[in-house]
Amino acid sequence: MRESAWMPTPSNPFAVKALAFDVFGTVVDWRGSIIREGNQWTHTKGSQVDWGKFADRWRAGYVPSMNRVRQGSLPWMKLDQLHRLILDDLLVEFKITGLSEQEKDHLNLVWHRLTPWPDAVNGLARLKKEFVVSTLSNGNISLLVEMAKFAGLPWDMVLSAELFHHYKPDHEVYLGAAELLGCQPAEVMMVAAHPNDLNAARACGLRTAFVPRPLENGPGQQQAPATPESFDVTARDFLVLADTFL
């Protein structure tokens, strides 16, 4: 990283040193990826499943399962483990039977095989020329590393809630990430498609960049409402974000 990226400039008035990215929905298309792999599964197994609904139900269990950890009804678990708990219930709900444990494990690891949005890889590569680019995700480290290899995501660092035994939006995650990056909170910019993630980061003193992903929840579905002017930067995609800084 060049020294110029550490100093205030007209394109980087915040003197940001590192960009920390939410991953699910912001960098990768979780819903489309699960549907695509599910359709391949249907072709192989012959099971008729509404994979869009299946993906939505799987994602819907995400926050409640993390809240169970926060409330102490579950011990600390990696996201892979929480995904498996949700999946086991979904297999019953969708009447998917006859799967071996190996097949269930493979299906659960679809979250390691998510496809990036079309702008993500090139945008990250451009931003990496000037900044440290890192994940800051509730996904566990092995999940994020395997996803990066699968999708060609050029991270400098892989930071995960697993390191702090807290899930976003707990403040320990954002402040812990800044510390591991060797930065003051204001020297780190959180990049996300989710206003609640950005609001929590901002409350910890991080800078914020809002990159909406209108197709995250499928065509015709709305994202959570956001007020773009409440964030330091708003960009249509990662390429525009790179244009803003470079």
What features would you describe in this structure?
There is one protein chain. This protein is 43% helix and 12% strand. It is of the alpha/beta class and 246 residues long. It folds into 2 domains: 3-27 and 117-245, Rossmann fold (3-Layer(aba) Sandwich), CATH 3.40.50; 31-112, Putative phosphatase, domain 2 (DNA polymerase, domain 1, Orthogonal Bundle). The strands form 2 sheets. A 6-stranded parallel beta sheet has the order 5-4-1-6-7-8, sandwiched between helices. Helix 7 links the parallel strand 4 (132-137) and strand 5. The radius of gyration is 18 Å and the shape is globular. The protein starts with 17 loop residues before the first strand and ends with a helix.
User: Number of domains in the coordinates?
Assistant: 2
H/E element sequence: EEHHHHHEHEHEHEHEEH
Strand content is: 5-15%
Give the number of helices. 10
**Strand segment count:** 8
Quick check: average pLDDT?
92
* CATH homologous superfamily descriptor of the largest domain: HAD superfamily/HAD-like
Major sheet summary line: 6 strands, parallel
Question: Share of helix among residues?
Answer: 40-55%
Alpha-carbon Rg, integer:
18 Å
Instruction: Report how far apart the termini are.
Output: 13 Å
CATH architectural grouping of the largest domain: 3-Layer(aba) Sandwich
What's the topology here?
Blueprint lengths: L17 E4 L6 E2 H16 L5 H10 L1 H10 L7 H15 L7 H8 L6 E2 L3 H9 L3 E6 L3 H11 L5 E4 L10 H10 L7 E5 L2 H9 L3 E4 L22 E2 L3 H8 L1
Parallel strand pairs: 1-4, 1-6, 4-5, 6-7, 7-8
Antiparallel strand pairs: 2-3
Helix pairs in contact: 1-2, 6-10
